[in-house]
Amino acid sequence: MDFWLTYIDEDPDHTIAVAKAAEAAGFRGIALADHVSVPVRFASRHPSGGPAPFDHRTDFPDPLVTAAAVLASTTRLLAMTYVYVLPMREPFSVASQVATLARLSGDRFRFGVGAGWLEEEIALLGQPVRGRGRRMDEMLEVLPRLWTEDAVAHRGEFLDFAPTGVAPKPRARVPIWVGGRSPAALARAARHDGWLGMNYDLDEAFGLLDALARARDARAAAGFAPPPRFETFLIANAAPSRALYDRLEQRGVTSTAGAAWGYADRAFASLDAKLEAIAAFGRRIIDG
To answer: Can you spell out the DSSP letters for 89-109?
Structure first.
């Protein structure tokens, strides 16, 4: 089981020190959230079903820039976007930024993507809200081609362009991990390199894992080869323990969030408190 530190709604000035501490404690990587500009008022519902746990004043440093800083400051730690809202972008700058990040980091970046839920933000960035799942599928078809082919031409529902290229290319496959809990999201994850779950009670988590397995089996039955490694990331709403993580691993979960502290827990606002909690989690869970 790999453990990732989710660094969301925390002081950006602490990021590098936290990343270095996470690497020393044995965390596999750091997970970075993505919002560009949060409207003061919005009607969109958060995926949890409750109110959004943030607002327009919450810090959301750019995740690709942050990943570059983290990866430049560490040697083994990975970084991933959790999750990058792909359909509120165009594909060419995304392809260039991710390829550059993969090259400069020695392939230590994992591209976690999702369709997004904050419709007002997607519209604010000038992208269509309706059909964003299909637009994301089309982008996920184009991006690996831009990373591997000399020049790419495409004509689809949302994207239409003459032959064009992106360079530099990544040296290795960029793992694409897809977030979401709907049947469409699980099928999309099965087409790529992994699935990114959120926080679930155990019964719901196991139901989603079963649905994901069925989606992967259906793809295999259709004759598609599996990726070199399929990642299954999930966070269980339960107290962290070695027994919990062993149980998740038995159900096919390959990685989870290392709960060094709770989301936006002000008891860990100081850098010293964060560093102590990371080291303690490493000793108690990762090394235990």
So the answer is: S-HHHHHHHHHHHHHHTTS-E
